[in-house]
Amino acid sequence: MAAKMLTPNTRLRLQEIIRRIGDSDPVSLQERIYVQKFADRDASVWSWLRRAQRQQRQGVPKPGLDHFLAEMDLGEPCEDSAFDPLRDDLGDWFSGAPHWLRRS
Predict the structure, then answer these.
(1) Which of 30, 32, 42, 43 is most buried, taking the most CB atoms under 10 A from its CB?
(2) pLDDT digits (tens, 9 = 90+) for 19-35
C-alpha cells in the first residue's frame, strides 16, 4: 500500500506536534497517537519523528560530525532499541517496524 500524500494542513499539524516532541514540550496522548498513525504509514513522518525523539533524548547536536549524523538520521534515537544478535531474533526485532519497512 503506497503512502497517500499529506495535505498541507495535515503536514503542518504533524510537524508542529513533532517539533514539540523534539523540544520536550507537552504533547497530549491523542496527539502522539495521531502522529504515530501517520508515522506507521509514511516514511517521511517516521523520519521526522525519529529525529525529534533523538533531539529529545540527546539535545540539539553540536556543529560538525554530531550534527551531520543527526541530519543523516543515522543510528537509533534511543540506545536501548539497538539490535543485539546474542539476545534478539532479527525477525522479532523487525516486528515493531512500520509495515513499509518490515520484511515480506
Answers:
(1) 42
(2) 999 999 999 999 999 99
